[in-house]
Amino acid sequence: MSALLEARGICRSYGRHAALAPTDLDVRAGEVLALVGPNGAGKSTLLSILAGALSPDRGSVVAGPGARRVGWVPQRPAQYGRLTPRENLELFARLEGVAQPSEAAARLLRLVDLPDDGRLGSELSLGNQQRLNLAIALLADPDVLLLDEPTASLDPRQRRRFWDVGRRVRDRGGGVVFVTQNLEELARFADRVAVLLDGEVVFDGSIAEYERSPDADVFA
What we know:
By secondary structure, the protein is an alpha/beta fold.
C-alpha cells in the first residue's frame, strides 16, 4: 500500500517535557491505523502534527501524491458555538472553497445524521458536537481522515454510524488514523496498530501481530 503521509523524525517538547520522541510513521492508502496507549503517551500530539495543526520541533511530514486533502477531527469541538450546524458547515465549506456550500451542508447533515432544527452549536450535546466535527472534516472529501478519540461521547448507534462514514474514506482508497482507548473498537475497525508509551512508538504492526505480541499490550 502506498503512503499518503510520511512522518520522519518528528518530535515535540513542551518546555522540558518531551511529549513525542523522534518518530517515523506512515499513513497508508486503504488502511485504518489505530494509535493506542495510556493517557499522556503522545497520541494527540502525533495526530496534531500529522494534521498540520501543530509544528514539530524537528522532523517533517511529507504528503504523498494521493493525499491532497487531510480532514482532522480533534477531541474538542472545533466549530462556532453561535452558529447552527448548517451555518457552521456552510461557513467552513466557503473557507475550503467547496462548490455549492448550501448543498454540501445539507448532504453532510444527512450523512452524519445531525439534527437541523435551528439549535446553536453551543446548545448541542457533546455527541452531536463531535458529529459536527466529523461533518466539517469531511467537507473537502479528504484523502486522509485523522480522528482523536472520535466516539468517546457517542452512544452505540451513533458510534456505528460514525464508523460507517469513516470506512467510506478507507474504501475509496483513503487512509484513516484514529486515537482510541477502546479495545473493542480497535479490534473491530483497525487494520494496523501503533502503540505509544512515554512519547515513543513501541509497536507498529497488523492487528494479528498486535494480538500475538504481549509486549504491545500497554493496558495489561
